[in-house]
Automatic annotation (TrEMBL):
<feature type="binding site">
    <location>
        <begin position="144"/>
        <end position="149"/>
    </location>
    <ligand>
        <name>S-adenosyl-L-methionine</name>
    </ligand>
</feature>
<keyword id="KW-0819">tRNA processing</keyword>
<dbReference type="InterPro" id="IPR016009">
    <property type="entry name" value="tRNA_MeTrfase_TRMD/TRM10"/>
</dbReference>
<keyword id="KW-0489">Methyltransferase</keyword>
<dbReference type="InterPro" id="IPR029028">
    <property type="entry name" value="Alpha/beta_knot_MTases"/>
</dbReference>
<comment type="similarity">
    <text>Belongs to the RNA methyltransferase TrmD family.</text>
</comment>
<dbReference type="Pfam" id="PF01746">
    <property type="entry name" value="tRNA_m1G_MT"/>
</dbReference>
<keyword id="KW-0808">Transferase</keyword>
<dbReference type="InterPro" id="IPR023148">
    <property type="entry name" value="tRNA_m1G_MeTrfase_C_sf"/>
</dbReference>
<dbReference type="InterPro" id="IPR029026">
    <property type="entry name" value="tRNA_m1G_MTases_N"/>
</dbReference>
<dbReference type="GO" id="GO:0052906">
    <property type="term" value="F:tRNA (guanine(37)-N1)-methyltransferase activity"/>
</dbReference>
<dbReference type="InterPro" id="IPR002649">
    <property type="entry name" value="tRNA_m1G_MeTrfase_TrmD"/>
</dbReference>
<comment type="subunit">
    <text>Homodimer.</text>
</comment>
<comment type="function">
    <text>Specifically methylates guanosine-37 in various tRNAs.</text>
</comment>
<dbReference type="GO" id="GO:0032259">
    <property type="term" value="P:methylation"/>
</dbReference>
<protein>
    <recommendedName>
        <fullName>tRNA (guanine-N(1)-)-methyltransferase</fullName>
        <ecNumber>2.1.1.228</ecNumber>
    </recommendedName>
</protein>
<keyword id="KW-0963">Cytoplasm</keyword>
Length: 251
């Protein structure tokens, strides 16, 4: 997968050299490129913003600078085989976007190229999203939650990590992705424990030492249901009744 990030703070993305994403980059699983938006400015001050039409506080990022940058970055990545579909997706992180979830991560993990346009100030001129949508490009305005950050860089890092770990080969043991929170079961994950078996006078649940796989599986399912009901009742309410077995329904 190819991922491009366009930002006025390329150094913010240094974290992409670390951990699993960094490893995937070095192994060639992720072709990740970070671009400085100011490379596409034309004045000697390398201006990327201007005052908002209609007045008001703050500055807005100019569509002409973004247009030059995105035309080049998107054009540059359009070199995949035609039968490899699904093509490029332009992601505009914004607090006014649809909230990014694991479903988006799963869907976007099969994209051929993802381009993140990181806003700053009061955001990017709205015509940028409108223009690229009108060209037929898949354009997503996505929020990482109901709060406002200073820029789109942290949001891009969050989405790249969530999407990247679903790219085949990225996580060493794909089994570890199966029972995770927000997975196919629609539940939060059960509590997990490791050695030592006793710590700070706290013991691990006895069933986990039983070696009885069916009992362990039942206990984990019950814990996942209880935890989800307590912390995220709306997730339980959204479950399809058929997704609950008889024993679950009796809980
Ligand atoms: N004026 C904008 C508003 O109220 O919707 C907020 C602009 S914010 C200060 C600057 C940039 O940070 C945005 O253009 C976006 O790229 C990024 N950003 C801020 N909060 C975000 C969030 N919750 N999710 C994704 N991106 C966010």
């Amino acid at each position: 997968m190819r991922i491009d990030v366009v930002t006025i703070f390329p150094d913010y993305l240094a974290a992409l050299d670390l951990s699993l994403v960094g490893k995937a980059r070095r192994r060639g699983l992720l072709d990740l490129r970070v671009h400085d938006l100011r490379e596409w400015t034309t004045d000697r001050h390398r201006t990327v913003d201007d005052t908002p039409f209609g007045g008001g506080a703050g500055m807005v990022m100019r569509p002409d600078v973004w247009g030059r940058a995105l035309d080049e970055v998107l054009g540059d990545g359009a070199d995949a085989e035609p039968d490899e579909a699904p093509g490029a997706t332009l992601i505009l992180p914004t607090p006014s976007g649809e909230v990014f979830t694991q479903r988006h991560a799963e869907e976007l993990a099969s994209a051929e190229q993802l381009v993140f346009a990181c806003g700053r100030y009061e955001g990017i001129d709205a015509r940028v999203a409108e223009h690229y949508r009108s060209t037929g490009l898949d354009v997503r305005e996505l929020s990482i939650g109901d709060y406002v950050l200073n820029g789109g860089e942290v949001a891009a890092l969050v989405m790249i990590e969530a999407i990247g770990r679903l790219v085949p080969g990225m996580v060493g043991n794909p089994e570890s992705l199966v029972e995770e929170s927000h997975g196919a079961a629609g539940l939060l994950e059960y509590p997990v424990y490791t050695k030592p078996p006793r710590w700070q006078d706290l013991e691990i649940p006895e069933v986990l030492l039983s070696g009885h796989h069916a009992r362990i599986e039942r206990w984990r399912r019950d814990q996942a249901l209880r935890r989800t009901a307590a912390r995220r009742p709306e997730m339980i309410a959204a479950l399809d009744g058929e997704a609950l077995d008889k024993h679950d329904a009796a809980l």
